[in-house]
Amino acid sequence: MAEEEAILGFLQNNDEIPHSGQFAVEHELDHEEVKNVIKSLQAFRYIEAKLIKREFYDLTDEGKKYAAEGSPEFHFFSAVPEEGTISMDDLKRMLDPWVFNVGSKQAPKKKWVAMGQQVSRTVEHVEDKVKEMLLQIQQGLELDEESLKSLKTRRLIILTEKWTGYSEVKKGPNYAPKRRSFATDLTRENLQNWEELEFKEYNFNAKGQPVDAGHLHPLLKVRKQFKDIFCQMGFEEMPTNNFVESSFWNFDALFQPQQHPARDSHDTFFLKAPLTTRELPEDYVARVKQVHESGGYGSRGYNYEWKREEANKNLLRTHTTAVSSRMLYALAKGPFTPKKYFSIDRVFRNEAVDRTHLAEFHQIEGLICDRGLTLGDLIGVLQEFFSRLGMSKLRFKPAYNPYTEPSMEIFSYHDKIGWLEIGNSGMFRPEMLQPMGLPEDVRVIAWGLSLERPTMILYETENIRELFGHKVNLATIKQSRICRIGIEAA
Ligand code: PHE
């Protein structure tokens, strides 16, 4: 760098650089660069320097008038006779209005005159300092702080430019004609030549380089926690690897009537290709048709004409309860064994997208299938499950699902938010379980919730689109902390 060489070189033969601006001009260097180099050399104590600041002012119109004609207080003083007095009225008549108005305030303030009905001089002679100062500024001379302040408050001058530079640039304790370069790395060459080299000191306070590695999305972190809790409670994971499902497994098997509003294309994404499912278990389909149309197993059914074409329609599953129905049907085929199942996977709903809704989300689903289970078991399991998540204050509200009876919405108390709906639950209806062929005394308790809701609460995300979809900010994902839900409860 030319600037650095010039400065260090100059100081080798000279005591000081009196003024950085002048130095830059004389050496044909850029003053900004010279200043940067001085700052850096000063930090390493190669040199010492004093920062200087200068401000440039212009005269306002009023300032120009005073500079040309003299200040109003000077004219006011001059109008007062050397001996004796003069009345204010006479002064007013004699003087220009601007001289009278300003002068009658400034002159007594400076203790040049005594004021009353009659005005008299209190000093013999005055100097028009204001005029002098204004002329100095016009000539580009520097004034002291106080003078500048007095002129600024009277709005006689205005700041036009600020200038900084250095003065008294001298050798510092570490002065050398050339900046030493330090060895920074422990390379083979550096170690072999260590005697000639000067190593840079370690900075143990430096932050390390950010680790360049893959990062888990918050939803995956929270999913892992839920998965662990299910596994600790002895649940098995259900295979949820097909997003496309038939209406039969998604709705009909769950005793959801074919006119149910959820089955409307406004709420469900139906598939165009393949439009329909290829295969369904025919004997089971016949029993489902029967329970919808005329009931059985102690039920009156819905009393409508059940249509096979409706059941065949393919869709993107609207809940993972579709998987539960497949699993329970498979379970009913063999000799009965109690089961605890869970899944966490994607579901799709044809919803208007807003800050808390997306057309797809992840559903967490749990179910227990055993002989003689009761609503008390469901409440107990939910308490156990949610307290492991750190949510032990729960409330239940009666609700309606076509496939559960009784059904309960689950509310949890959140310190910052209050009571919050976190899930839905219930006991699967006999109209759903019996046609599958499960023994009559087998009961299934089940619940479902979204993965996004707890994730948004845990990571304080206000807009779901920041969490999921094309607006996700990768930096946020990288910086998201680890998820340790349920720690307080443990
Ligand atoms: N399928 C329900 C939903 O989509 C959740 C649920 C699962 C409710 C199991 C009751 C029993 O909200």
From TrEMBL:
Main location: cytoplasm
The keyword Nucleotide-binding belongs to this UniProt entry's keyword annotation: yes
Any one biological process term the GO annotation gives: phenylalanyl-tRNA aminoacylation
GO molecular function: ATP binding; metal ion binding; phenylalanine-tRNA ligase activity; tRNA binding
Residue ranges occupied by any Aminoacyl-transfer RNA synthetases class-II family profile domain in the UniProt entry: 221-469
InterPro entries: aa-tRNA-synth_II, aa-tRNA-synth_II/BPL/LPL, Phe-tRNA-synth_IIc_asu, Phenylalanyl-tRNA_Synthase, PheRS_DBD3
Location of the protein in the cell: Cytoplasm
Chemical reaction(s) catalysed: tRNA(Phe) + L-phenylalanine + ATP = L-phenylalanyl-tRNA(Phe) + AMP + diphosphate + H(+)
Gene3D superfamilies associated with the record: 1.10.10.2320, 1.10.10.2330, 3.30.1370.240, Bira Bifunctional Protein, Domain 2
Cofactor requirements of the protein: Mg(2+)
Protein EC: 6.1.1.20
GO cellular component: cytosol; phenylalanine-tRNA ligase complex
Keywords: Aminoacyl-tRNA synthetase, ATP-binding, Cytoplasm, Ligase, Magnesium, Metal-binding, Nucleotide-binding, Protein biosynthesis
Entry similarity comment: Belongs to the class-II aminoacyl-tRNA synthetase family. Phe-tRNA synthetase alpha subunit type 2 subfamily.
Protein name: phenylalanine--tRNA ligase
Source organism (scientific name): Raphanus sativus (Radish)
